[in-house]
Specification:
alpha+beta, four-stranded mixed sheet, 6 helices
């Protein structure tokens, strides 16, 4: 099955650069607001600075997804979500719209390669939508699968980078999900 074209092949490198730029800007914002000091990451211990490894694995992201790695290191390095939840939920770097658009498209492309299938539609308006995971596909009269997840771009990129967790964003009301498969936490961070 051919996936939805969320990014043109000739724009993949541009998307990779936009994602790296978003990560760098997020790292700067993390350092500016001082989150991460004394936090315990998913794989790190107490005192882990979440900004320290942010963006360490951007250049290898496509290669990890080619190999089918479902549990690769996040763009945050070995660290994960902040325990200072309110601050983590506010991370949203001030970057031009084209950078946001390409970063969203590139990360959706990575997710689509990690979990291909027609069963769940992931929408990050206004810049992209993909179908992932096996499961019931849409019928010919309704092109939307039974499971749909909608996120804002800043929410999506925080999740993709590992700045926040699915549960944090869902609890904050930032994720709209319909259907039985409404949790992508096993696929994130990228």
């Amino acid at each position: 099955m051919v996936g939805m074209a969320v990014i043109r092949e000739q724009d993949i490198e541009k998307g990779r650069r936009a994602w790296a730029q978003w990560i760098e800007a997020a790292r700067a914002q993390v350092a500016e607001v001082g989150i991460g000091r004394g936090n315990a990451g998913r794989t790190g211990g107490a005192g882990t600075d979440i900004g320290a490894g942010l963006g360490a694995d951007i250049t290898d992201a496509t290669d990890r997804n080619d190999a089918g790695s479902a549990g690769g290191a996040s763009a945050m390095g070995q660290n994960s979500a902040c325990t200072d939840e309110a601050t983590a939920l506010s991370i949203s770097p001030a970057l031009p719209r084209p950078v946001w658009a390409m970063a969203v498209r590139y990360t959706l492309f990575l997710l689509e390669r990690r979990a291909p299938g027609p069963g769940v539609e992931v929408r990050v308006a206004p810049w992209g939508a993909i179908k992932i995971l096996d499961g019931p596909a849409s019928d010919p009269h309704n092109l939307t699968p039974p499971d749909v997840i909608e996120l804002e771009p800043d929410v999506w990129l925080r999740l993709a980078a590992g700045i926040t967790t699915w549960d944090q964003e869902k609890s904050a009301g930032h994720i709209t999900a319909i259907g039985e498969r409404d949790d992508l936490s096993d696929l994130l961070p990228l």
